[in-house]
Amino acid sequence: MSQLPSCPQCQSEYTYEDGDRYVCPECAHEWLIAGDADNHADELRVIRDANGNVLQDGDTITVIKDLKVKGSSLVVKVGTKVKNIRLVDGDHDIDCKIDGIGAMKLKSEFVKKA
User: Fold this and answer.
1) What pLDDT does 42 receive?
2) Distance from C-alpha of 50 to C-alpha of 113, rounded to nearest angstrom
3) Is pLDDT at 38 greater than 70 in this prediction?
4) CA-angle at 13, arms to 10 and 18, nearest 5°
5) Average pLDDT over residues 67-88
6) 1-40: CATH topology
7) Rounded CA gap, 81 and 64, in Å?
8) What's the whole-number mean pLDDT along residues 22-36?
């Protein structure tokens, strides 16, 4: 049996492999099996707005284009401010809540940092 590394966060010895990652069942921390610093830097993705500004969790953004809400007749108008965004992986990389509409996912190419 091969020796798996301890968790870098909580030092637990009960880690296991899941695909290309190690997982700690005690603190739920995940890291790449090839786990050196260079590979970890590639894992981090930088999300930018339409003007090239780097977005972070908790930022306030402004919509720069009318966006139709799929499945309804609502439209998110140009200039709508959205507070406290959350960045997620995927095609629609901003998760937010818009007043009057509710929870939505937006593409970063249609917003600018406020």
Assistant:
1) 46
2) 9
3) no
4) 95
5) 94
6) N-terminal domain of TfIIb (2.20.25)
7) 10
8) 81
Domain ranges within the chain, ordered by starting residue: 1-40, 60-113
CATH of domain 60-113: 2.30.30.40
Q: Show the tokens assigned to 96.
A: 């937010």
- Encoded amino acid at 22, one letter: Y
H, E, C per residue of the chain? CCCCCCCCCCCCCCCEEECCEEECCCCCCEEECCCCHHHHHHHCCCCECCCCCECCCCCCEEECCCEECCCCCCEECCCCEECCCEECCCCCCEEEEECCCEEEEECHHHEEEC
For residues 80-89, average pLDDT: 94
